[in-house]
Structures are given as C-alpha cells and as structure tokens.
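TICKET #2291
ISSUE: user wants both folds in one file
ATTACHMENT 1:
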Amino acid sequence: MITIPVQNREGKEIDSVKVDEAIFGGRVRYALLKQAIVMYNANKRIGTAATKSRGMIEGSTRKLYKQKGTGNARAGNVRTNIRRGGGVAFAKQFRDFGKDMPRKQRQLATDSAILSKLKVGNVVVIDELKFEKPKTKDFVKVLGNLKIDRSCLVTIGQPDENLYKSARNVPGIAVMKAVDLNAGDICNRQKMLFTKEAFMGLIQKEKKD
C-alpha cells in the first residue's frame, strides 16, 4: 500500500489516501511504457515535409542535345536534378508516422506511468483547486505552497475554464482530465497534481476495470 497525503491550498496535510499498487497493475511494465511513449511521440510528428521530384516539374522530357559531339557535358532533360530548376533527387513525400496500440495495452501503459510516479513520490493530491476567476498569480502561489517547482501535469475530474486559463501561461504546466490521461503526457512531466475528486474517481474507475 502507498500512502498519499492530501494537502490544502496552503500546503498543509489535512488527510491521506491509501492506494493499493495492484489497482495500477502491481508493477511498472517498462517495455510497454516505452512502446506507449514511442507511439505518443510518433503521433505528434506532422510528416508534411515535401519537395518536387523530377516527375512534378514542368518541362519537356526531350534530351537537351545529343550525347556526343557538342563539346558539352552529357545532359538529360531539363527536369533533371542536376540542373537549376530541376526536380529533387529522392524527393520527400507526405508521410504518416502514426502508430497504434491495442486499447488494453494503452491502459496498462498509463497505469504503469502513474504507478511509477506514485512509487517515487511525485504525485501530489490537493483537496480542491477552484478559482473564482482566472488568475495566474493565485495558481502559481498554490504550486509554491505545494513545493511544485518543476514541470507538472495537473489532473482534474471535470473541465474548469478558470483553472485552464490560470495555468495556460505557466511554463511546464498542463491541465488534463483524468479520463484523458496517457503515458506520454505523464512521463513528459516531473510531477502529477491531482484534485482529490479526480484521484478518487481514477481509483474507482481502475477498480471497476
């Protein structure tokens, strides 16, 4: 069992939550975690780089002049890649770098990522994280009280526009709903900050699954 303290906005411990490692698979599956991170990064690649090949250049396919007897270097048509304005040799074409994984494997990888954070103490749980209006200064103050001074994935249960707007200008901070968690986003940040509502909801969901 892993005991996670629940803190308030001032950084004082007011409660605790016990988590059974078995809920998140019991162990960290490193091979599966790597596969999920590779997929995450591959799916972020755009792959729209493209250049014109010889076949895409306008111009005649006629040989410019005969092979021998002119005193010039041998030359093909005007589309050749060795002439100015010609096509590119081995031209780049649109490419889809996307990868996929079975749903159960993706879920196991996400569980392993969360479990790895839990084991090294990089999960912080706060009782509530609501703002009456968007205020980056107030959000940064809460992070300071919780001793979060590095990149962090803030996980909430329900969408909160004020929280999104308060956090969007803070470097290294991302806000995400618990149902949208994935191994790539979790591993890309040093810490995870859960609201108690989101954390308990995640545990209940994992138990049902």
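ATTACHMENT 2:
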Amino acid sequence: MDQELQATIRTRVADENVKHIQLWFTDILGNLKMVEVPDRQLDSVLESGAPFDGSSIAGYAEVEESDIVAMPDWTTFKVLPWSQNHERTAFVFCDILDRNYQPYEGDPRWILRRQLKRAADMGLEFHVGPELEYFYFKNGDGPELTDEGGYFDVLPADLGNDLRKQTMRTLDRLDIPMEASHHEVAPSQHEIDPHYDEALVMADRVMVCRLIVKEVAAHNGVHATFMPKPLHGVNGSGMHVHQSLFRGADNAFFDAGDPNHLSDLGKGFIAGQLHHMREICAVLNQWVNSFKRLVPGFEAPVYVSWAHRNRTALIRVPLYIQGKESTVRAELRNPDPAANPYLAFAVMLAAGLEGIEKGYELPPGVEPNIYAMAAEEREAAGLTMLPNNLYEAITETQKSELVRRALGEHAFERFVTNKLNEWYEYREQVTDFEIERYFSVL
C-alpha cells in the first residue's frame, strides 16, 4: 500500500477523532456487510486487512475454505456524518482476498474489477449514471403511503421532499456528487440521481446511497424501500442506468459523421446488450418481486428493443445535443435498484464488450409505442420479450457462457443456486390473491 496514503489515513483518523472503522463489503446478492474495528487496530488493518469467516456470507466460502480477508480500499475512506464528535465512526469499502492474499473469486467488487480490466485492455473506461427510485412508507410494517404525489409534483408540507433534501445534504458531506432528486410517478415514490462516473466508483456510491436513504428515513420515523414493486397497480421502482465508454477524455460512443452521432463502437455495445439481455436479466432483476415491475402499462420495459425517443424501449439513446459529445450514451431501463450494483454493472459491460468484439449488428430502432403495437407488428420487428419471472430468467442465465465467464465459476454457481432456491420457496407460497380469488368459491 502507498506509504503516503497510509500516512493520510492515520492523520485523518487522529485529527477527526475516529474511534471506530467499519470495513464494508457485499455478499453476492448486494447486501451490505461489515466488520468494525477500533482505532487501535488501524496499523494492523493497514498492513494486513481483517481476516474473517466467510462461510456464513451468501455466495462466499464453504466451511472448509472459510478463511478470507477484508482488505480496505483506502481511497474510499469516509467519516459517517451522523457520528458524535467525541466518538466518530468511519467506513471504507474492502476488496475480499483469500487466505493467500489473492483476489477472492466470490467478491462482487473483484468481479466488476475483472470486467473493467477487460475494457481497459481495449483502451476503454466504463462510465455509468444510475437513477435510483424508491418508496417512503409511514413505517416498516406495511406499505402505508406518506403522500399522494406524482411525477415532479410539488406538494405542500411534503415530507418526501424534506427527506430527499436531507439525503442529498448527507451525501454531499460524504463527497458523493448528486445530479438531482424529485418525486416519481407513483404516490410516495422518489428518485435520486448520482453524478455520472466510472463504474466501480459508482457501484460503491450506489451502496452508500441506498444506506443513506434508509438511514435518513429511519431517523425521521419513516421506512424507505428499494423493493422493485411494493404496491399493486402503480409504477414500480427502477434503476435506469446511463452508460458510455470513454477513451481518456473522449466519449467513444460519439461519432460526428454518423446521422445520429452514435459510433460503430457504441452500436456494437448496444447490440451486445440486446443480444444477451435475456441471459443477464436475472442479474439486473434478481428478485421474485423484480418481475412484478416488468409488465406492460407501468413505464417499465417488457420487450428487447432500442430507440431514440421511445421510452417503452429497453435501451434508449437520447438524441444528441450540439456541443455535448460527452453526453452521448445508452440508457438501459430494466435494472432495478435492489440489484447488486457490482454484478449488474459487470454483466452489462460484459455483454456490451461482447457486441464490440464480435461485431454484432445493431437491429433497427423501434420508435412507436411498443405496447400499442399489434402482436404481428412486434413479430415483424423481431421483438422478443424479457423473461416473465425469476425462474425463466435464471434458466436463461444457467445456459449463458457469457454470464459464467463474467461472474466466474464460483460466483456463477452460487448465484444460480441462490436464485433457484428463492424461486422454489416462492412457488410454494399461498398468496393473499389466491385466498381472495379461490377460498370462498372453490
């Protein structure tokens, strides 16, 4: 580790009166985990990280190979803004290493690093900008609304607006730049947008944003949830991801000579994602509940397609604005905010790079409202549907060599097994819908 960075960390811990350091990482599903060490252990952690038992972490080690190490990435070190001045707490994201101090194959952060290295070997850097949608409810016992607002609404005495402002201020204190926040389409639904950045930086920021949204809500007696579809009959929560590849300061998606200013590389990237979408969908929409959102009529994509203006398409390429070369991008609209961002960005990049490397041809864009098209029109346009449920999605993933390579054998097998188990457990449930529909009449 760089000696200058070590000295900086020691100075910050002393000067800012940090007494506890939380070592953060995620399991394979994207749940935030941590080991907390006191400040007196700083020198030991700086030198050799923090060993722990990984056998109880979803997707990590088996009992017989459970010794792994949380090695902090000290460039991510931050002091939590709600810490008390006399006993402050900091956090740092970690890379997970095996007992030989080599990258651990089950670490989602390492999985994303591998794909970013693949892009870097092509002279490219992957940038993303996610839009995080979520709901506020009055408590954690059930979905009781805090407001009846709609898209971009300004409401009198708006609790949600106040909570968003508190969240944005807190993230600003953590040096996480934000683009905007607003009320979303459904009642009690809101959105915050981190500023576009490199994918590993952004995956870390997504984890922080999800935590801060929930912490601010809890401190105000409200429950926030990133569950994709908590309410029947209204829009669910998505995580539209704006994507582009850069060569240094130049946007590799931009081509001044193309009628739509989209480069051949950008077209290949989009074609790759379209071609492999059914295979990667279980990673972008990884929960049973995710597929309750991906249905017609609620602004979520259902068909594998792309377009410039059409917001029912899976991938939207916003029209070029003169002089804004850096903003040429592809907006992928099916991911949801409950996905593991490290794995999601990894498979998105893997699919896009596959399209570039193998020269996939971008099919024609679909500008009409896809939901309003007749079935024969969709068939003529060659449109396929996203998977209808988690089982269909994970079955596609099981067959995917691309996802197996992107995740690695270790994580691939554990992810698929976890999702199949979730589906089998869900399939056995007797729901309120069934009781209400059948109990009295059958």
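RESOLUTION: both attachments delivered.
EXTRA DETAIL ON ATTACHMENT 2: The chain has a mean pLDDT of 92.
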